[in-house]
Amino acid sequence: MEMNESFDTGQIVAGFHERMSKVALFDALFELQRKREPDVDGVSINMMELGLLSLLYFFEQKLMRNPRAGVKELAAFLQEATADRFHLPMEGFIALARTIIQVFRPATGKKRSFSFYNWETRKEDHVFTSILKASAFDTKTNTQYYALDEDGLELVFATKEFYLEFQLSIHQLVLRKQLEKGEFQGALRQINEMRVDVESLQERMTKLAHEIKRSIVSEETLKKYSGLLDDIYSRLQREHEEFEELRDFVKETKDRIYSDTLQQRQQQAYEYILRISGELEKVHGEHTMLLQRSMELKTGALQAAKESLYYTGMDSFNLDQDVASLIFGSPLPLDALRGVLSPFIGLEQTMSWSPLTVFAEQNIAGDGEEGNREEAFLETGDPHALDEFVQQRGKRFAELMQDVLDVWGHQPLVRLSDVVEEYKRHHVKSQRLEQRVFYDFWLILHQRSPLRSHASQMDGETPLTGMEEALVLLGNRTLIVIEEAPILQINDRYAIQEMKLLWGDSI
Predict the structure, then answer these.
(1) Cα of 155 vs its chain's centroid, Å
(2) How far apart are CA 76 and CA 206, in angstroms?
(3) I need a labelling partner for 110 at 20 to 30 A (CA). Which of 91, 167, 231, 291 fits?
(4) Distance CA 330, CA 436 (A)
(5) Rounded mean pLDDT of the chain?
(6) 119, 16 Cβ separation under 8 angstroms
(7) What confidence tens digit (pLDDT) does each residue in 74-120 have?
(8) 255 CB contacts (<8 Å, ≥6 apart)?
(9) Taking every pair of C-alpha atoms in the chain, what is the biggest distance, in angstroms?
(10) Cβ atoms within 10 Å of 20's Cβ, excluding its own
(11) 129, 62, 50, 139: which is closest to 97 by C-alpha?
(12) Cα distance between residue 173 and residue 184, in whole Å
């Protein structure tokens, strides 16, 4: 089978030593992973993770310009960082810190050695890494201090998602250097790696589009994704500008080589620069589509998510539960009530008189009614339904009165808050606090205070409230209900003013 002319095995394995040197940086962490150290409770300690924590600790000390970071300081940091996970005395953490430092910096003082087979040179090869180095020594306390070496810094940076975000920009810089040096074959491979980066970004952009549609459920997540899209767009814009500069640079290089194509070497270089120009245009085109995609996400998908968030809130809104229960269940002050109702009131109306009111509908009373208006709520037109309602409420009132007499009938004074607390302690009775009849009972008691048993004997003109059966239970005693200042917030729906019950003199 014939091999493709552009397929060069030697070019693929070029720089194999440098790539393996990156792998060798993580060898110390994997060596720590193979170690097994339990704490006093027998819990296995994750040495690899503690090793990375130690690197971050030494990195922070380097940022703070603190050269005095040794075994004891590292042990104190590990003890504080893992206090909720591992239980060890200070001596145990000192032993852990010493083990970690010895892995990063062998006791022999030599660099760590990593052996591998180099497929570029076809020979056994070695990489030497230095994660930690000695920074200072205290002769008085015989204490050695350590700091991150160059390989340690590179390892810390390699564990952070830094290169992935800016990989394409790095490839663009490398490509420009290769073109300046005339390394056209390496530049062609660099463009292929840039194409892989663009394809990876396209996949991530597709996942991000699905994530936006799926994950935006609040204003906080909407702001987070909006900021993320702004960052992506700005980075892609910078990369697009760099592509434009690379295109101009390749064009200048192509024109310069074309003017001198008599030599065989320049002829081959011109063929390479033509291929570079074509491949760069393809990658640039795909990257431009990626930039367009980010703009669509920023304007289209994000706007659709905003509308979805809006309509979700509208669908979940319930007028009876969110507004009506708040208004009728809580005795709100007048100013607060205006604030609740203001979003549902129409346009602002000006208090003015219009001559057209002369022609408005007039309230005309019938003959003999003398124009008297009844200032009362409309009652149900079915007397049987009204009687049934009063009877049912009377039974409930009688049960509530019986509870008061059974528990507090022998006490000279009882407050409504005491009754509420007693009901809350019983699961069955606590359900009565969710019913309006409980609050109607106490309001009617207060309105008709003082109450006596003979008060139930009313004439036919007095409207029935259902309290008549409850008053019979009073016997020969008098019940006095007096309101007090505090407002009792019984639950989310109901609130009522505090009241106290007093037993008056016997009849």
Answers:
(1) 30
(2) 45
(3) 91
(4) 12
(5) 78
(6) yes
(7) 999 999 999 888 989 999 999 999 999 999 999 887 889 999 999 98
(8) none
(9) 132
(10) 19
(11) 50
(12) 14
In order of 365, 407, 420, the CA distances from 327 in angstroms are 34, 33, 22
DSSP readout, 81-111? HTTTT----HHHHHHHHHHHHHHHS-TTSPP
Q: In sequence order, what are the residues at sequence separation of 6 or more whose Cβ sits closer than 8 angstroms to the Cβ of residue 34?
A: none
Placement of tokens 């200070």 in the chain: 90
Instruction: Give residue for tokens 């905003």.
Output: 306
CA 376 vs CA 317, 373, 379: distances in Å:
32, 9, 9
- Residue 3 pLDDT more than 50? no
Distance CA 240, CA 167 (A): 14
Instruction: Count other Cβ atoms within 10 Å, centred on residue 306.
Output: 14
- Cβ distance 257 to 269 under 8 Å? yes
Q: Return the DSSP state at 159.
A: T
pLDDT tens digits, one per residue of 270-315:
888 888 888 888 888 888 888 888 888 877 767 776 776 666 655 5
State how far Cα 436 lies from the chain centre: 39
**Structure tokens belonging to residue 33:** 């992973």
pLDDT in tens, 17-43: 888 998 999 999 999 999 888 888 888
Residue 363 has a pLDDT of 66
CA distance 465 to 389: 9
Query: Could you tell me where the DSSP H helices lie in 105-218?
Result: 150-158, 163-181, 184-215
In the predicted model, is pLDDT for residue 461 greater than 50? no
